[in-house]
Amino acid sequence: MRVLLINGPNLNRLGHRDPAVYGTTTLAEIEVAFSARVKERGAECVCFQSNHEGAIVDFLQSQIPNGIDGIVINPGALTHYGLSLRDALQDVGAPTIEVHLSNIHAREEFRRHSVIAPIARGQMTGFGWRAYLWALDYLIDEIDKD
Ligand code: DQA
User: Fold this and answer.
1) pLDDT score of 146
2) 143 vs 17, 50, 60, 80, 102, CA distance in Å?
3) Which of 6, 38, 105, 112 is at 20 to 30 A from 22, Cα to Cα?
4) Rg of the chain taking only CA atoms, in angstroms
């Protein structure tokens, strides 16, 4: 079982960027915790972050030949307008969980709309970094059932 963890623009700044909103945990720490949980669950993962939408699309396409069983993604601001990212996720067709550290529905109006949500299995928003791990557990439990 192979899972991708993808983080979009500005999430490389986690731990430093607006800690009152996004917390003090860094992306490196999240990737270590995620990879450890993946290993515990007997799966494999690849972690990827980019500030560029096209680079994320390229990454997704590059992973297709290796097999993609599930995706955990925090698309950052691409959530709100990233149509080529949405198309690429839809093309891959693997169950996808959209994660946000902050509660996007309790913030500015422009953050309330997600172009990713309609093609995602579900969305976790407002629970901080642990939601990446909960999303992973959900995916592995669901994939195991199939
Ligand atoms: C975010 C919410 C987005 O609106 C924002 O652009 C981000 C982070 C979150 O994790 O809460 O970069 O996805």
Assistant:
1) 62
2) 34, 27, 19, 28, 27
3) 38
4) 14
